[in-house]
Amino acid sequence: MTPVHFAFSSAFTLGLMGLVFHRTHLLSALLCLEGMMLSLFIALSVWTLQLSATNFAISPMLLLAFSACEASAGLALLVATARTHGSDRLQTFNLLQC
Prior knowledge:
Helix Hairpins, 3 helices
């Protein structure tokens, strides 16, 4: 495994571990998801450049577009829950109550 691949793998793993273990606020969960998507975008871009294949050149841009949509939906949910519940702490949410 090259150092570049190790860096992207460790960045994705750190984002995943942050998402799993530090779930106190919704904003921290969204930041971990964005870090994971950023590491996937950079890894996919490097993979496309290493292969020199024009067939996969659109893949990083599609991933970036979906990442932007995910970020906007996450921020909209953050604002909506902060207005209704008063904070973004995940312990105050009750999934059984509408």
